[in-house]
Amino acid sequence: MSELTPITVAYGDGIGPEIMEATLRILTAAGARIAPERIEIGEKVYLSGNTSGIPDEAWESIRRTKVLLKAPITTPYGGGYKSINVTMRNALGLYANVRPCIAYHPFVRTLFPTLNVVIVRENEEDLYAGIEYRQTAQVVQTLKIISRPGCEKIIRYAFEYAMNNGRKKVSVFLKDNIMKMSDGLFREVFDEVKVEYPEIETDSYIIDIGAAKLATAPERFDVIVCENLYGDIISDIAAEMTGSVGLAGSANIGNQCAMFEAIHGSAPDIAGQGIANPSGILLGAVMMLVHIGQNDIASKVHNAWLRTIEDGNHTVDIFRMGLSKAKLTTHQFSNEVIENLGKEPVKLIPVKYAAGNTRKSNIQDSDLHYTHPTKDLVGIDVFFDWNKGTAREFGDTINALSTDQLVLQMVSNRGAKVWPDGFAETFCTDHWRARFKCPDDVKSLPYSAVLDLMHRLVGAGYYVIKTENLYFFDGKPGYTRAQGQ
Ligand code: NAD
What percent of the chain has pLDDT over 70? Predict the structure, then answer.
């Protein structure tokens, strides 16, 4: 008998235990060469006082087996409980979230019969870094962090995924007309990487129109790669477009560990009734089997599942009178899949996960390209908490505190320029940004110039919240202008 691969299994909360049990029965019947190791994470652990929801012994198992099959978890409201998903993605470096969203027309009712897309979502960065501050009485801030290695890892992963899975096109969704630096970097890296994959067609969409096109002409898309927040939103929409959120599986891939799950939550409204659809976690498990190299079993399980769907044997969420043959419980549905092991669908296209994929399935640090630009300090943005008058009064008094090396250039409020020459119509909060720049003939400032300015501003009674250094990289500005500047 060939060796068993240890995997860690979390049964989760709500419908989690029901759908996990059904999935493991199917995997066992299919002959999956796995040795599941059960851990306890989630609601019970949270409520025992562990705010991460993951005890030490669970971490130990996951870091040893490096593969986690996870049923959905209920995060209790309030009490400062941290999302297990976000914690795991960050702690284990699971940078790629892969979500295939496929319509099974005409066997599952959907308004989008041609939908067949895989969303590859960046999983570690963006607004999900969770770096947030309250800065004034009126203003809070969340930092959007986008790194070049982060972009390169996810974009390369998307192209490698397309090559490995017979996909023809990779589209990027972004908002670089507004976020010129962060989303601009994502586009820059996409344009650099795409030339290495001439076999793959590419295109790009601003996220708003891209999402609209996905909802009206999904046949345009094959693989979509995007940053964390955009991917989170469009993948849930795309999964729902297939006919049920209960149908989609998801993989979270890192260089060392990987986690596989359904995209839906713990569905407390139907928990304990034995009627949940186990398809999402089952298709997550199929992705896991491919990840651990058991492509033969992955194909067997996936085809048996397609055949079950095609035969009209459906759980309640996708059951439709006249379309479905039988309304099954979770257990009955898994029995049908087990009955169909070894069969293929007749009308839906059977899957075949090729044995021995030669392409790499993850992106190592050594694959990435780093640049080493020169960096010169040319100014500083100073953020103030101030509510004592108009923009003109603020700008004029701050201007008088300029030094020889740092001269006030402009003041903005929520990104809109309000000094000099602002509009009276611009609404101003108590959160101000003043941009001090070095004179044009100075190419690089010592940091002492910033400290001198700070002494003058604070000495004059101003409340400085924070500062951002302004740099030139290789002689080009590493910051944006204010709107209206
Ligand atoms: P949900 O996905 O659990 O449920 C949304 C709706 O879809 C419900 O009506 C539910 O009955 C139905 N549904 C979901 N999965 C189904 C399935 N397999 N079969 C049949 N019907 C199904 O979303 P929610 O209600 O917003 O969240 C419930 C809990 O799940 C929350 O505590 C949330 O934090 C958690 N959650 C966890 C994960 C995860 O662990 N990956 C993801 C999302 C939400």
Answer: 97
Q: Are the C-beta atoms of residues 450 and 458 closer than 8 Å to each other? A: no
Closest CA to 106 of 312, 298, 296: 312
Look at ligand 1, atom 32, and give the residue with the nearest C-alpha.
Answer: 74
pTM of the predicted model, to two decimals? 0.91
Q: What's the CA gap between 484 and 417, in Å, rounded?
A: 6
State whether the beta carbon of 249 lies less than 6 angstroms from ligand 1: no
Domain 5-366, CATH: 3.40.718.10
Q: Compute, in angstroms, the gap from residue 416 CA to the centroid of ligand 1.
A: 40
d(CA 458, CA 332): 71
23 lines ligand 1 (CB under 6 A): no
What top-level class would CATH report for the domain 375-477?
alpha beta
Report the pLDDT averaged over residues 442-468: 95
Compute the distance between CA of residue 458 and CA of residue 467 in angstroms, rounded to an integer. Answer: 13
Average of per-residue pLDDT across 287-310: 96
Which run of H or E residues covers position 433? strand 431-437
> Which three-class secondary structure state does DSSP give residue 381?
strand
Q: What angle do CA 313, 316, 321 make, to 5 degrees?
A: 70
Please tell me if the CB atom of residue 264 comes closer than 6 angstroms to any atom of ligand 1: yes
With a 6 A CB cut-off, is 75 part of the ligand 1 pocket?
A: yes
What are φ and ψ of residue 227, in 5° steps? -70, 170
Give Cβ neighbours of residue 145 (< 8 Å, ≥ 6 apart): 125, 126, 129, 131
End-to-end CA distance of the chain: 71
Instruction: Tell me the C-alpha distance between 378 and 472, whole Å.
Output: 7
CA distance linking residue 60 with residue 374, whole number of Å = 43
Domain ranges of the chain: 5-366, 375-477
Question: Which of 161-165, 359-363, 409-413 is predicted most confidently?
Answer: 409-413
